[in-house]
Design goal:
Length: 558
């Protein structure tokens, strides 16, 4: 009965505020308590009451019965459980039809994404602080995410996995029931406005159910999986054992240059050690170096850090020739330590996917998990239990899905982007340079205060931006180091990080205006977004009190 009151008994006619109430449900309405939501609730309640009073007996009985669509518990945001769902086949069909119709009515997928982005911000400006990614990139993410969810409605298990990955990527965001309701209602109202009479009651019910399920799952994952995050952090500190390994390495450092030959091998010793031809000297060297050699052998036999244990287990388990595991291992620490920071974790996975794209052999990510778990069990024997097993499996399965989402794409995108850049003649380059700054100064006029250089210098900066998007695919490791150095220089320049998002959007729109192929557009957008994320992070991390004092040239503050 509560479900019928909260959702099913409403009718299709009436103002948009009343339509929003139909999807929201009574429980979510009572929870609007932050950032102006109270006022909106009062408005919605009044609108709903006016609708009931004004419409009354004028609505035909046939219409009223037609609009009662039972979607069960999903009439409200379900944040208490996270299970597989199976919507009725007719509702799934209507929802997919409505989504495809909406995309077809838009001039392009980008335009559809922009419409969704604008609808969300118009519905709740207070949510803008949650979106730190450039507008054009965020709009495409909305499109890709919603398309994937709606297309997998017929497969409950695949849908649950996709939504769980989405929740994993939102661990650091404060998603609440009222905010989910705002997001859901903005989408529903947008479809109602765009589709008009083609937006049926079953379409509405399907979209409401989808948004309630996804939003509730994100809240559930953030709340219930906090214990897993804690387990990951504590066990990783034990397994990595960085301080102890650094101290042990310093203790094993040879006190003099006479021991260097033992670490370099027999060939190097015969060439560099003048005592190699003297039998007495050899005997002394052998006797004196016995303790060091035994220490080194002992060190190899009993690994103390995760990297050492991982390489040891990889060799024992037959994966010693899997060179790609070394590439993952180089960034594994950054991924684990930033598991609760979705933006940083996505950045690390994006860079790793570019690095793995250059590996020529076969990559089986599940093999890394087997070696990882074996190493962790050995390094955390006292605390390891089923909860640790579940937490680390959950972590790697989500990372694996994030990597697989981009694996295979960088090679194709790189070729398409390089073809586009090579096809630009001088006229197109000049147009692109001017268009970037024209669009940027339009959306961020204050940015002109930081671009006071000559036109030649501005053109050079635009050229470097375009060059970096291609370089990111060719040599990601080197470019990440270069971007880090560039970010520290921007700390000295005192550039506000708020300007990077509109600059990226302006550059993406400028490239889009030249009409390259869609793959080249996506490659440029994805690469430039990754560059800007690394740059912004470096600036924020480098903005220490010392750097701020240097920027202000204040000796007292320094």
């Amino acid at each position: 009965e509560d479900e019928k009151e909260g959702f099913g008994s409403s009718v299709h006619n009436g103002p948009s505020a009343a339509r929003r109430k139909r999807c929201r449900g009574t429980e979510a309405m009572d929870e609007f308590d932050d950032e102006g939501d109270v006022e909106e609730t009062e408005f919605l309640d009044e609108a709903g009451e006016d609708e009931k009073e004004g419409s009354g007996d004028e609505i035909p009985e046939e219409l009223n019965e037609e609009e009662i669509i039972d979607i069960g518990a999903l009439a409200e945001v379900q944040d208490k459980v996270f299970e597989e769902i199976q919507l009725p086949a007719d509702i799934i069909q209507e929802a997919q039809t409505g989504w495809n119709t909406f995309i077809q009515m838009s001039s392009s997928r980008d335009a559809a994404g922009e419409a969704i982005y604008a609808a969300l911000f118009d519905a709740a400006p207070s949510l803008q602080s949650l979106f730190k990614t450039p507008r054009s990139v965020m709009a495409m993410r909305f499109m890709n995410g919603l398309t994937g969810i709606i297309n997998t409605l017929t497969t409950p298990h695949a849908l649950k996995v996709m939504v769980e990955t989405l929740g994993f990527q939102h661990l650091d965001l404060d998603v609440t029931v009222p905010r989910v309701a705002i997001f859901r209602d903005a989408i529903v109202d947008l479809f109602d406005m765009e589709l008009g009479t083609r937006f049926t009651s079953k379409m509405r019910a399907g979209l409401c159910a989808i948004m309630n399920y996804v939003g509730g799952a994100i809240i559930y994952i953030r709340r219930e999986y906090a214990g897993r995050i804690k387990i990951l952090n504590t066990s990783w500190r034990t397994a990595s054992n960085k301080d102890a390994s650094d101290l042990e390495e310093a203790c094993l450092e040879p006190p003099g240059e006479g021991h260097a030959g033992h670490a370099d091998g027999d060939d190097a010793k015969d060439k560099d050690d003048p005592s190699a031809s003297d039998p007495n000297a050899k005997a002394q060297a052998k006797t004196g170096g016995t303790s060091l050699i035994s220490q080194m052998q002992s060190q190899m036999q009993v690994p103390k850090t995760f990297n050492e244990m991982f390489l040891f287990n990889a060799a024992v388990m037959g994966f010693g020739n899997s060179g790609w595991m070394h590439l993952v291992l180089e960034q594994f620490d950054a991924m684990v330590t930033n598991v609760a920071n979705s933006y940083r974790l996505q950045e690390e996975c994006d860079v790793l996917s570019l690095v793995l794209a250059q590996y020529e052999g076969e990559i089986i990510l599940s093999e890394f998990k087997a070696v990882m778990l074996a190493s962790l069990r050995s390094l955390v024997p006292k605390d390891w239990d089923s909860a640790h097993e579940v937490a680390w499996n959950w972590f790697w399965e989500n990372v694996e899905r994030m990597l697989k989402a981009t694996m295979g794409k960088p090679t194709v995108q790189q070729a398409s982007l390089e073809r586009f850049i090579m096809s630009l003649d001088e006229d197109n380059l000049t147009y692109l340079r001017r268009e970037i700054y024209k669009r940027f100064f339009t959306v961020a006029p204050a940015g002109q205060d930081h671009f006071k250089q000559s036109t030649t210098r501005l053109y050079w900066i635009a050229d470097k931006v375009i060059e970096m998007t291609s370089e990111m695919y060719r040599d990601p490791k080197k470019l990440v180091e270069d971007i880090s150095a560039l970010g520290l220089r921007h700390v000295g320049y005192g550039i506000p990080t708020e300007f990077f998002a509109p600059f990226v959007s302006s550059a993406v729109d400028a490239v889009k205006s030249i009409n390259p192929e869609e793959i080249a557009q996506e490659a440029f957008r994805w690469s430039l977004t990754l560059v800007s994320k690394i740059l912004v992070r470096t600036i924020l991390e480098g903005s220490t009190i010392v750097m701020k004092a240097i920027n202000t040239n204040d000796a007292k503050q320094l």
